[in-house]
Every structure is written in structure tokens, then in C-alpha cells.
Amino acid sequence: MLAYREKDNLIHKLHPLAAVAYISIIIILSLIFSHPVYLLGLLLAVGTVIIASGNFREWTPYLLISLGMITVIMLVNAVFVQAGSTVLFYGPRVPVLGKIRITLEAICFGIGMGIRLLVIVSAFCFYTYAVHPDKALKLFSKFGNKSVLAVTLSTRLFPLMIRDVRRITEVQRCRGVKLDTGSRWQRVKNRLPVINVLLLSSLERSLQLAESMQARGYGSGKRTCYTRDLWRPRDCLIFSAAVLSLLTGIWAVWQGWAGYTYYPRLESLQLNDLKMAAVIVLALTVPTVLSWGWKKWPLLKSKI
Amino acid sequence: MKIKIFAAILVFLGLLLAVSVIPVNPLYNVNWALFSSVVIGLAMLAFFRCFEKSAVTSKEIALISTMAALAAVSRIPFAAIMSVQPTTFIVMITGYVFGAQTGFMVGAIAALVSNFFLGQGPWTPWQMYCWGLCGVSAALLAGRQKGFKLSTFIILAGFWGYLFGWIMNIWHWVGFVYPLTLETFIATYLASFTFDTFHAVGNVIFTVLLGKSFYRALNRFKNKFSIIYIDC
């Protein structure tokens, strides 16, 4: 049911704090950078990590969907934005917009935004497939154990309810309710009792759930902990590399290296500005390198 | 006390806006997608903190997670049809019966949990916020009238079809549209009009079909579990 699948590699065995910190730093950096080379660097880093975590197959539909979105963004941007100065060609006259000018700058801006979108989508894809939701939620249970408990319970109830829906429709079918034949309106109408039965049985179950929680002493005294995630040297390495890249990124933005002006004329690329991009990419590919070493080198595996 | 907190929030929001608009400071022209997400996150944090502070019993937690799971499950069969789903209705009716806090939590958790299965994205906090507010507004409506009035509930549900889209549009506009001018703003809102109408019509249909029976079931359940313990 859950999108997450357990896989036997280093990245799936990370402490959730390291993984969540890594992902949020990628997203923050992708939002504060506007330089296409820096954004490409982030994409490179997150892509190698996804491949190292063995989720390439899951990543491809995300890539395809976002490529479609990028095309739309690029087209809309090219048609609607008239800010650039290098005109590639003139389009027809349109009532509201006036004469359309397709400019190189608008297309490049669309591409830059597209790379940013790709980075964010990939980071969320990585989160969906490589971090166990329960483990990630447990990070927050220190600050709000009630809300986290509610979220965890409801994640668990979700597949249960889908099974319930199947059971209830099966029972209705046995009783001769026509769920698959008749007009569309008739089918919808016949399915409504399913939702009502589902509501009643779920409410009944929630009362039992509450009673069993009460019986096991929920809310009495200090909370105990069933499993504990270990904070290993690898987590330390990845976490500090991610923090290093965040600091470098903020510094690069501060100095204006990671910014880029598309309008009115494309800025030329300065090699000097790109040094920090290399540092950031190196720091963010630490998980990939460690994962590779973890597979090839038993000594490293035993040390981290 | 309440006025003080309210004033503090206003001052804080004003400062945040000032920091992003006044030219001479390093945060000038900060990324608006990031900025708006921070504001939304802070708003939600206030609701969650309120929930943590209150004395919540195991029954309420079980109820919140059950209703959130129900709202989340009901999103799945309709995922193919954009923006028509009974989730908004279920969140609203829960808020209507059980109050603002439960309504917000059910909405926020439904969005979060359904996205565990449909895929998390930068839209998750915005959906959490929107559905949370659906629950809160329904609870506010319940405070103004007795029992369940289909007519007012339908108006609110239909209105939320549009408001939901309008709040989500802010994210879409600041995230992907350039330049941020009045024209592009209006264009974004016009573009979403059809989807919002679908959402509103869906909400109204689900309210008409399920409103009464859901209200009765939830109300009965509420009476069943509200036990007052008397310390002797």
C-alpha cells in the first residue's frame, strides 16, 4: 500500500533525521538559487542519490510528469512574458496580449524554473520512496506526540479502510445491490450506502481503539519508546556535509554568485561564480559515495 | 491575553512582509514560494501547538485519526477526476459536529496521510492548511445555528470549492509565474476557475447526498463518547 519499499542499501538505513535534513536542505537551496548551473548541480546530486538508493525505476514517472509540466511552464512563459530583449520571432497579434514576441530570455527563464521544479519534484520523490513515513514522523514526536500519534494511527487505518470498502461492496453485491450495472447515476446512488456503512463501522472501531488505548494506559505517566533509531557515523557524515552545503549555498547567495538575471538580457556565465557550485555538489553527493563504498568495501561498511 | 497574542502575530507578519519588501536588507526580494510556505507553516504550527497544549483524550485521538483516514481514503477513487472528491465534505461535517480543533486536525491529517499514498510534494502544506480551515469554518458555522441546516451548509461547502482553489492559487502563482504582476495574478485565478467550479459542485452534491446521514451518525457518536468523569 505504502509507496515506500524497504531496500537493502545504505540510504534506506540512514537515520531519519539525516535523510530529512538532507532533503530539506536540497529544497531550501533549490528555492534560494536562481543560477541555472547551481540548480543543475542540485539536480545532479539528488539524481545520483536516488539512483544509489535503487529507486531509479520509481523516479522515471516523476521525471516524465515534470518534463510535461516544464514544457507547459516554458510555453506559457515564452508567450506571456515580453520582458526579454533578444527577440527570436514575432507571433501573431492576440486580442488581449497584443503582438506576441518570443524572446530568448523568456525561454531561458522557463528552462531555469523547470530545472528548479525538477529538483523539488525529485527531492519529494526521494522522500516518498526512501524514507519510512513512520520513522520520519517519529522525529517530530518529541515536539508533538499527540499529533504524531494521530497521523501514525491514521496512516495505519488507511489500508484497513480500503479493505473495509472492498468487504462492504462484496456484501452489498451478495445482497443483490446492482453496483456495476444500470445508469451512471443509479450506480452512484447504489454506492452511497457503502460510504455510510464505512462511516458507522469506522466510528465503532475508533471507539474500540480508544478503549484499548485507555486499557493499555495511554496518557498515564511518561511515554515509553519501543524502537530507537541509531545515530551512526554515516549519519554524522551526511548530516554535516548537508549542513556544510547549506552554509556554502547561503554564502554564495549572499555574495551574489548563485543569483542570475535573465531579464532584460541574459547574463554571461562567470567561471569564478561557479566554484561554490562544485563545493555544494561534492558535499551533497556524499551519500552516493558512501553508498558505493558501503557496497564495495567491507571495512568501510564495518566502520560507518 | 488573546488580544496580546493576536497583536503579536500581526506585528510578526508585518515584520516578515517588511523584511521582504524594503530594499536595503539581505532578505530583500526573497524567494516568494519559500516565504509563503514559511507563513503557512507558522499558521499551521499555531493550530498544532494549540492541539498539543489541550488535554486530549484517547477517544479524541482515535476519532481524529479515523475521520482523517476516512477523508483520505475517499480521495483515492476520485483522484483521476480533478478536484471532485468527498474529502472536503467529510472534513467539514466533522468540524461541524466536533468543533474547530478536531475539524482542523482532521483536515490537516487527511491531506498529509493521503499524500503518503498519492505522493508528497510542495503542495502538501497548502492542502493541509486549506482542508484544516475547511473544518474550522464549518465549526464556526455550527456555533451560529442549532442542529443541521442543509441550506447554510451547502452555501459554505460551495464557497469552499472556490476558496480552496484561491488559496492553492497563491502557491501556484508565487511558485511558477513570472513576473508577479496583477495581470498574471488575474490570469492564474481565471485559469483555475473551471476546476474550482468542479470542486464546488462536487461539494454541493456530496452534501446533498450524504449530509443528513453523516450528521446523524456523527452526532450520535458524539453523544455516545462524551462522558463526564466526576472525581469523588
TrEMBL record, chain A:
Keyword Nucleotidyltransferase applies: no
This protein's record includes keyword Cytoplasm: no
Pfam families per the UniProt record, alphabetical: CbiQ
GO cellular component terms listed in the entry, alphabetical order: plasma membrane
Keywords, ordered alphabetically: Membrane, Transmembrane, Transmembrane helix
CDD domains, per the entry: EcfT
Localization, UniProt: Membrane
Topological relation to the membrane, as annotated: Multi-pass membrane protein
Transmembrane spans: 14-32, 37-56, 62-90, 102-131, 236-254, 274-294
Cited PANTHER family: PROTEIN ABCI12, CHLOROPLASTIC
Protein name: Energy-coupling factor transport system permease protein
Organism field: Desulfoscipio geothermicus DSM 3669
Automatic annotation (TrEMBL), chain B:
InterPro entries per record: ECF_substrate-spec_UCP037395 (IPR017196), ECF_trnsprt_substrate-spec (IPR024529)
Alphabetical list of Pfam families matching this protein: ECF_trnsprt (PF12822)
An example molecular function term from Gene Ontology annotations: transmembrane transporter activity
Segments traversing the membrane: 30-49, 61-83, 89-118, 153-174, 186-210
Organism field: Desulfoscipio geothermicus DSM 3669
Sorted UniProt keywords: Membrane, Transmembrane, Transmembrane helix
Protein name, per record: Energy-coupling factor transport system substrate-specific component
